[in-house]
Design a protein that fits this description.
CATH topology of the domain at 283-367: Dna Ligase, domain 1
Number of strands: 15
Largest sheet: 7 strands, mixed
Order of helices and strands: HEHHHEEHHEHEEHEHHHEEEHEEEEE
Shape: globular
Length: about 450
Amino acid sequence: MQAANSPVEAVARVREALPAQGLFADKEWLFSPEPFVLEEGMEEEFEKLGHRLNLFNRACNQLYQLSAQGRQPRWVADYLDRGKPPELVEFARQKGLRDEIPGIIRPDVILTESGYTIAELDAVPGGIGLTAWLNRTYSDLGAEVIGGRDGMIEGFSSILPGGDIVLSEEAATYGPEMRWLADQLNATSGNGSRWEVRDTSLSTDFQRNVYRFFELFDLPNIASARFLMEAVGRGELRVTPPFKPYIEEKIWFALFWLRPLHEFWRRELGERHWLKLQEVIPYTWIVDPAPLPQHAVIPRLEINRWEELGSFSQKHRELLLKISGFSDLAWGSRGISLGQDMPQAEWKAAVANAVAEFETHPYVLQQFHKGKLVRQPFLDVSKNEMSVMHGRVRLCPYYFVIEDKAKLRGVLATVCPPDKKFLHGMKDAILVPCSAAA
């Protein structure tokens, strides 16, 4: 594909390159003629971030296991196991799975006026095929994208060389992108390995490695889950992300900030990486209704009981309530309440619900950091002319853990209208790959 002569022509070529089946089921987005350009030094910062987050994931895995063994505070594992079926908890603690962590790391990064913040880590991320397609398509237009033309495809094949992508009905929206990815993996494989996208309704024995593209809360609806888990237990195949529900909890950001665990994090991450992660992980609390002594307060909130949070004035509610995990409300911006945007009565009810759900579905409270305004050109289809969105951006770097090192292979930018508080893919958002500043 040759470079386009005009922005309108560039967008036309991007749209022409779309696979016949699309990339998302029943989803659309706005097209831009060029990648989103990161600020100077941001690519290098993302490279370092991947290393830190890989250390963080390994430390989380280690902390949970030590807690389960009684060698770290037992309340760590207690928080992370709440609401989980006992048999799944037991399976995740198997000796054979001890060192397994997700093979793909994808943080949701929000650019702010002072730098950036990590809204959360997604252990079962979508957008892998989309970002691979965007990198390839914009590269063919002459752009230099982060990760290179085929970095995403090479990265995915490196974590599991050949196997099945097992996709649940819950994740059916992402089916087209994963099937496109499998086709590209098969077309570029030089060793005869093959990839296939399989439906979780197939209750069949698995013989090959598996990329798990379904959430663990959905296990009762997945006929093939038992076969997969039995095969993993026998050591016959590898599944990534592993069957470890504790790894996928948002509570980790709260545990990162808890003072009794500071020495653990400092030791496992190293002083420099620990301090750097403090700059980008937003302060987070576990909404634990355990009573405090009358003289004690919850750090930074200066309240003695969570019910007092419901009475905060709107200007003091730059706070997000999120369900921590193991729920169909724990992904896709569902199960999130932004205090600043809610009437007092609704915020109070959301806080009361979070307190009430603690025993089975713990919530976290997180500082909200507003994204800064950025500019990105796009094609206004109604006028067939270029326009510019002054919006806010979410960046999703994709890291593939290869030989215990996190390799950056692509960055997806989602530029949303400025009135959107939750930045995610939508029909009025621009989706593009990222390139580094010249």
